[in-house]
Amino acid sequence: MSDGLIIDQLKKNQILDLLKEGKRVDGRQFDEPRKLTIDIGVIPKAEGSARARLGDTEVVAGVKVQPERPFPDTGDKGMLICTAEILPIAHPSAETGPPQPPVVELARVTDRGIRESGMLDMKQLVLEKDKSVIGVFCDNAVTDHDGNLFDACSYASTAAINACKIPKYEMQDEKPVKIEGEFTEPPITTLPVSVTMAKIGDFILVDPTIEEWGIMDARITITSNSDGNVVALQKGGSDGFSQEELIKCAELSVKVGSKIREIIKQSK
Amino acid sequence: MGGRDTDIVLLDENGIRCDGRKVNETRKVTIKAGVLKNANGSAYIEFGDNKILVGVYGPRDVHPKHMSDTDTGILRCRYHMAPFSVGERKNPAPSRREVEISKVIKEALEPAVMLKEFPRTAVDVYMEVLQADGGTRCAALTGASVALADAGIPMRDLVAGCAAGKAADAVILDVNNEEDQAGQADLPIGYMPNLKKITLLQLDGVLTPEEYKQCIEIGIDGCNQVYEIQKKALQDKFFATGEKQ
Predict the structure, then answer these.
(1) The model's pTM
(2) Could you say which of B1, B111, B196 has the minimum Cβ distance to residue A242?
(3) How confident is the model over A100-122, as a mean pLDDT?
(4) Starting at the edge strand that comes first in sequence, how are the strands of the sheet with B29-33 ordered?
(5) I need a surface site. Which of A19, A186, A230, A266 has the fewest CB within 10 A?
(6) Which CATH number is correct for A9-267, 3.40.50.2020, 3.30.230.70, 3.40.30.10, 3.40.50.1000?
(7) What is the CATH number of domain B29-235?
(8) Whole-angstrom Cα distance, residue A19 to residue B230?
(9) Is this complex's ipTM strictly greater than 0.90?
């Protein structure tokens, strides 16, 4: 449901007219994201948590850390799973029930950004090879939807994982037992940050609002890491990009992403 | 990411990849259009060891009815992998991965298909992966646009698919299964060669901005090669002697 939002024709015309004058409905520059605020530790029961507010879009990410049996082919690495769901309180069009394709895409793009960046050094999250590893589960709950859930989930996840505490375990009779009150820092290697851009006509807009989202022709989400490299990417929407546009988008993503990364760093 | 550890040499000292290709070479691609009797359009594609069958039905009535749009036709895509298509049996129920791939392929085809010509109808594209060997989404997309053309649905362009990526620190074209598992990055591309528009693009893995540019560059080159094979498949079907019109 994050796609296919219905925007009335008058609003659409207004947005398009403003774009031709080089303006956006909320007065932002084309390459300017909305104000981002991040509060960490909002869910004390979770090992890590963050509430990200991007304009009026709000996401709560919670990290749970628990021992898991590793997958047979990756017994020397910990486990990392990110999910996302849009709660029915977030928007009138949000539905309960099994996730629709746009929500599946949101969850998978969020997961890919964190996973492919190698944000956590998974080799350090092994308790006993092939028997027991540490699982890090980062679940995102969208609580208010004003467009661009991809980035809001990216920022909430990165901030929550960055700030999480890994409980200490010791192996007793081949079973992991938690040592109460002892924690280690997560093995963070980099801070991945996604930047989503909407293409409306020939205009590229960073961090589209729900109205811009509803009328865009295509979108692209590019995740970059602390070194300024591109680590994940997802194109969506019913139009295409030229080669030049893609290169411009990658540059924009790295540039805007580095400012966002500072906000996430300072939140810890 | 560093990818999975294997003993396979992805790139030897002569710059030859694990399946004998050069870095800028695609696998062998063969496409046959019009292979199914009942479907309005169809195609069978072999992209290296990938074997994919695509059937197109429509434009036809939309069921459930509430999905129909009075302004335009709708495109529905299903990418599905057969349980026997991969090493370990795949559960036949659609996975989250398949749901996502179906969505990105749909959005890659939509810019090419002139759906406004058929309001209130649906065009259904079914892609069945019979054998998978890395790069199935590009192969399925390539086959799907041939099947759509075979069905006689008006299109602005064909969409050709080919991935670029990075393995053993080299930028490579058309990532195979081993390179996907053990390599450093995979960047599938869908491209409309006449309109010069990229309609499918994903990435997992780390690329520097320079490598990213190179990947897009050679990926487009790969799509152009695939495009020639798509056109040939349609010529073979509609001009039986294979000669150009």
Answers:
(1) 0.89
(2) B196
(3) 96
(4) B29-33, B41-47, B50-61, B121-131, B74-81
(5) A266
(6) 3.30.230.70
(7) 3.30.230.70
(8) 39
(9) no
